[in-house]
Amino acid sequence: MGAAIETKNLTKSYKSKQGGRINVVDHLNLYVEEGEIFGFLGPNGAGKTTTIKMLLGIIYPTEGEGYVFGKELGDMEVHRIISYLPEKPYYYEHMTGLEILRFYGSLFGIKDDDLFKSLLEKVNLAGDMTKTINQYSKGMQQRIGLAQSLLNDPKLLFLDEPTGGLDPIAHIEIRDLILQFRAEGKTCFISSHELSDVERICDRVAIINKGRIAKQGPLDDLLKGGRIEITATDITEAFSKTIQDKDAIVSFSHGRLIVDLPDDHNPNALLDAVRSSGGTIVSVIPRRKRLEDLFLETVSGHDGSSVEIPNPNDAKEGAEA
Ligand SMILES: Nc1ncnc2c1ncn2[C@@H]1O[C@H](COP(=O)(O)OP(=O)(O)O)[C@@H](O)[C@H]1O
Ligand SMILES: [Mg+2]
Asked: Strand, helix or coil at 168?
């Protein structure tokens, strides 16, 4: 599989309120593999939407370059095989779900009610296609947006905060649809500041802060470094002193032993030793590192990568290059 998206030093600057310019996207090197769900994460104002708009060719980079399926940004042929669900889609409220698809379909020159109906079915709106958009819940509006983004059977979908403001059930529905897209071989580029979604479905992520990539890689690699906590009772103090693992955090009091191990250490030898010393295992609890921990570490600078969360007012709205 090749690259669906690749950027080299992709940069966008705007005039800042203080005078001078500010890089809201700052020398971004992104790599998105074909067929994967890629999570593009960062706090509000980090530069996610600006990056997506450059990748779509809606706005021009100030510096750097980018390729979508090997073609330079803005290539018209690529437009046929990509689609975009904006952060705050706006639909004509008096139109029905079916009419919306007919309307957007006409922009692509598609007049195919069977296709529109099958897309409505796919996003579970077949029963609601004659209701108008103002009768749709937020989750339904987001699903009609997904149906619309599938009109051209895209190979790559850009979904900007697709679960923003949705309730937990709607989250799950959207997530399941995105997983279905991947199963059909589509590449999904999802921006989000909501981590729990991403944690469950993304193959790889990039965390950006102040326009820069703070971390990028396979989710499994980034989340390495979990711990296992073993608790045992009926332990002698002598036994507690035999634990030699230098990476273990051991606490012992009144016959109760708690050992906290890195999750790449096999706990079996310790469990066997506890039992043969006459001890009782109370619990063995793996604690996976959460994306949330990594995110906070990254954007709050605990790992030294970056420090401030950007102030969205730092750049002047509309002050285009
Ligand atoms: N047209 C524009 N003119 C000036 N500043 C802008 C413009 N568009 C976005 N910005 C600024 O760029 C920064 C990044 O915005 P955005 O890409 O929307 O962030 P995100 O999608 O990660 O929340 C923000 O500080 C925002 O105010
Ligand atoms: Mg945004």
From this structure: helix
| Residues linked to residue 156 through DSSP beta bridges, in sequence order | 82, 187
Distance separating alpha carbons of residues 313 and 142, to the nearest angstrom: 28
**Structure tokens belonging to residue 105:** 């379909």
Please choose, from the candidates 273, 199, 264, the residue with its C-alpha nearest in 3D space to the C-alpha of residue 242.
Answer: 273
Query: Do 70 and 3 touch, CB atoms closer than 8 A?
Result: yes
Ligand 2 centroid–CA 318 distance in Å is 15
Could you please report the per-residue DSSP string of 83-148? EEE-SS----TTSBHHHHHHHHHHHTT---HHHHHHHHHHTT-GGGTTSBGGGS-HHHHHHHHHHH
Which residues of the chain register pLDDT less than 50?
302-321
Query: 61 CB under 6 A from ligand 1?
Result: no
The answer, yes or no, to whether any atom of ligand 1 lies below 6 A from the CB of 73, is no
| CB of residue 45 inside a 6 A radius of ligand 1 | yes
- Distance CA(303)–CA(291), nearest Å, equals 14
Nearest Cα neighbor of 49 from 89, 20, 87, 84 is 87
**Tens of pLDDT, residues 1-29:** 689 999 999 999 999 888 899 999 999 99
Contact assessment for residue 281 and residue 198, using Cβ atoms and an 8 Å cutoff: no
pLDDT one-digit tens code per residue, 156-197: 999 999 988 888 888 888 899 999 999 999 999 999 987 777
User: Taken in order 260, 262, 266, 269, is the CA torsion positive or negative?
Assistant: negative
